[in-house]
Amino acid sequence: MPGKRGRSASTGRFVKQSTVKRHPKTTVNESVKKSSKKK
34: which residues sit within 8 A by CB, 6+ positions away? Predict the structure, then answer.
């Protein structure tokens, strides 16, 4: 799931991108790279 995900700075829980836009002071965007799983 490459892309961005939002996280609340106060609780550490994941939030929606719409929440990040509404509350920029209390949320952060994290860049997520596609993980390469070895078999």
Answer: 1, 2
Tell me if the pTM is above 0.85: no
The residue extents of the domains of the chain are 3-32
What is the helix, strand, coil percentage profile of the chain, to 5?
15, 35, 50
Q: How high is the mean pLDDT in each 10-residue block of the chain (39 residues)?
A: 84 92 92 76
Tokens of 31: 């860049």
Q: What is the pLDDT of residue 16?
A: 92
Question: Residue written as tokens 């550490």?
Answer: 12
Give the helix/strand (H/E) hosting 13: none
